[in-house]
Amino acid sequence: MRAVFQRVTSASVEVDGKIVGRIQQGVMVLLGVAKGDDASDAKYLVDKIRTLRIFADEQGKINQSLMEVGGGVLLVSQFTLLGRTTNGRRPSFDGAAPPDLAKRLYEQVAADLRACGTPVETGVFAAHMQVALVNDGPVTFVVDSREER
Fold this sequence. Notes:
Layout: E1 2-15, E2 18-23, E3 26-32, H1 39-51, E4 55-56, E5 62-64, H2 66-69, E6 72-77, H3 99-115, E7 120-122, E8 130-144, H4 145-148
Parallel strand pairs: 3-6, 6-7
Antiparallel strand pairs: 1-2, 1-3, 1-8, 4-5
Protein backbone atom coordinates (compact mmCIF):
# COMPACT_ATOMS: atom_id res chain seq x y z
CA MET A 1 0.00 0.00 0.00
CA ARG A 2 1.15 3.46 -0.77
CA ALA A 3 -0.24 6.42 1.13
CA VAL A 4 0.22 10.16 1.24
CA PHE A 5 -0.26 11.57 4.75
CA GLN A 6 -0.95 15.28 5.02
CA ARG A 7 -1.28 17.04 8.36
CA VAL A 8 -4.36 19.24 8.06
CA THR A 9 -6.30 21.83 10.00
CA SER A 10 -9.34 20.81 7.94
CA ALA A 11 -10.20 18.56 5.01
CA SER A 12 -13.30 17.44 3.16
CA VAL A 13 -14.33 15.27 0.26
CA GLU A 14 -17.33 15.88 -1.98
CA VAL A 15 -19.16 13.55 -4.36
CA ASP A 16 -21.90 14.78 -6.72
CA GLY A 17 -22.04 18.13 -4.96
CA LYS A 18 -22.47 16.66 -1.46
CA ILE A 19 -19.84 16.54 1.26
CA VAL A 20 -19.43 12.89 2.24
CA GLY A 21 -16.54 13.29 4.67
CA ARG A 22 -15.07 16.14 6.70
CA ILE A 23 -12.52 16.49 9.50
CA GLN A 24 -10.89 19.32 11.41
CA GLN A 25 -7.39 18.81 12.86
CA GLY A 26 -5.92 15.51 11.78
CA VAL A 27 -4.53 13.64 8.82
CA MET A 28 -5.73 13.47 5.24
CA VAL A 29 -4.69 10.06 3.88
CA LEU A 30 -4.73 9.29 0.17
CA LEU A 31 -4.48 5.50 -0.08
CA GLY A 32 -3.48 3.34 -3.03
CA VAL A 33 -3.66 -0.45 -2.82
CA ALA A 34 -1.12 -2.43 -4.85
CA LYS A 35 -1.33 -5.91 -6.31
CA GLY A 36 -0.20 -8.37 -3.67
CA ASP A 37 -1.15 -6.19 -0.71
CA ASP A 38 -2.88 -7.96 2.16
CA ALA A 39 -4.06 -7.49 5.74
CA SER A 40 -0.49 -7.05 7.00
CA ASP A 41 -0.05 -4.00 4.75
CA ALA A 42 -3.30 -2.55 6.09
CA LYS A 43 -2.19 -3.18 9.69
CA TYR A 44 1.15 -1.50 9.01
CA LEU A 45 -0.53 1.62 7.62
CA VAL A 46 -3.07 1.82 10.44
CA ASP A 47 -0.21 1.80 12.93
CA LYS A 48 1.69 4.50 11.00
CA ILE A 49 -1.39 6.72 10.65
CA ARG A 50 -2.03 6.57 14.39
CA THR A 51 1.54 6.77 15.72
CA LEU A 52 3.70 8.75 13.27
CA ARG A 53 4.79 11.84 15.18
CA ILE A 54 3.83 14.65 12.79
CA PHE A 55 2.09 17.14 15.11
CA ALA A 56 3.74 19.91 17.09
CA ASP A 57 4.04 19.71 20.85
CA GLU A 58 3.84 22.68 23.27
CA GLN A 59 7.35 23.78 22.27
CA GLY A 60 6.50 23.70 18.55
CA LYS A 61 8.55 20.56 17.83
CA ILE A 62 7.07 17.87 15.61
CA ASN A 63 6.83 15.33 18.39
CA GLN A 64 3.22 14.16 18.78
CA SER A 65 1.11 11.55 17.04
CA LEU A 66 -2.48 11.65 15.85
CA MET A 67 -3.42 9.64 18.96
CA GLU A 68 -1.83 12.22 21.24
CA VAL A 69 -3.57 15.22 19.67
CA GLY A 70 -6.92 13.45 19.29
CA GLY A 71 -7.22 14.24 15.59
CA GLY A 72 -9.31 12.60 12.92
CA VAL A 73 -8.54 10.90 9.63
CA LEU A 74 -10.03 11.63 6.23
CA LEU A 75 -9.30 8.47 4.21
CA VAL A 76 -9.63 8.68 0.42
CA SER A 77 -8.89 5.87 -2.03
CA GLN A 78 -6.54 6.87 -4.84
CA PHE A 79 -5.34 4.18 -7.22
CA THR A 80 -3.30 6.75 -9.17
CA LEU A 81 -0.67 6.61 -6.41
CA LEU A 82 0.33 3.29 -7.98
CA GLY A 83 0.74 4.81 -11.44
CA ARG A 84 4.06 4.38 -13.21
CA THR A 85 5.16 7.27 -15.41
CA THR A 86 8.51 6.00 -16.68
CA ASN A 87 7.44 4.95 -20.18
CA GLY A 88 5.73 7.29 -22.60
CA ARG A 89 3.12 9.88 -21.76
CA ARG A 90 0.32 7.71 -20.44
CA PRO A 91 0.67 6.41 -16.86
CA SER A 92 0.48 2.67 -16.36
CA PHE A 93 -1.67 1.38 -13.52
CA ASP A 94 -0.59 -2.27 -13.80
CA GLY A 95 0.68 -2.17 -10.22
CA ALA A 96 -2.71 -1.24 -8.75
CA ALA A 97 -4.77 -3.96 -7.09
CA PRO A 98 -8.01 -5.11 -8.73
CA PRO A 99 -10.99 -3.05 -7.50
CA ASP A 100 -12.50 -5.79 -5.30
CA LEU A 101 -9.25 -6.31 -3.36
CA ALA A 102 -8.53 -2.58 -3.19
CA LYS A 103 -11.99 -1.82 -1.82
CA ARG A 104 -11.76 -4.58 0.79
CA LEU A 105 -8.37 -3.40 2.08
CA TYR A 106 -9.38 0.29 1.96
CA GLU A 107 -12.45 -0.54 4.06
CA GLN A 108 -10.28 -2.64 6.39
CA VAL A 109 -7.98 0.33 7.05
CA ALA A 110 -11.01 2.50 7.89
CA ALA A 111 -12.55 -0.18 10.13
CA ASP A 112 -9.26 -0.90 11.93
CA LEU A 113 -8.71 2.80 12.62
CA ARG A 114 -12.24 3.09 14.03
CA ALA A 115 -11.71 -0.04 16.15
CA CYS A 116 -8.73 1.73 17.74
CA GLY A 117 -10.93 4.72 18.60
CA THR A 118 -9.69 7.00 15.82
CA PRO A 119 -12.39 9.19 14.26
CA VAL A 120 -12.50 8.37 10.53
CA GLU A 121 -14.32 9.95 7.62
CA THR A 122 -14.02 8.52 4.11
CA GLY A 123 -14.56 9.30 0.50
CA VAL A 124 -16.57 7.00 -1.78
CA PHE A 125 -14.53 4.17 -3.26
CA ALA A 126 -14.11 4.48 -7.06
CA ALA A 127 -16.17 7.68 -7.23
CA HIS A 128 -15.06 10.92 -8.84
CA MET A 129 -14.35 13.14 -5.84
CA GLN A 130 -13.39 16.71 -5.13
CA VAL A 131 -11.00 16.91 -2.19
CA ALA A 132 -10.30 20.11 -0.28
CA LEU A 133 -7.80 20.53 2.50
CA VAL A 134 -5.72 23.01 4.42
CA ASN A 135 -2.31 21.40 4.73
CA ASP A 136 -0.84 22.49 8.05
CA GLY A 137 2.85 23.29 7.76
CA PRO A 138 2.84 22.03 5.05
CA VAL A 139 3.60 18.60 6.46
CA THR A 140 3.35 15.73 3.97
CA PHE A 141 4.79 12.20 3.99
CA VAL A 142 4.69 9.33 1.52
CA VAL A 143 4.50 5.93 3.22
CA ASP A 144 4.80 2.64 1.34
CA SER A 145 4.14 -0.52 3.35
CA ARG A 146 6.49 -2.57 1.19
CA GLU A 147 9.42 -0.17 1.27
CA GLU A 148 9.15 0.57 4.97
CA ARG A 149 9.11 -3.01 6.26
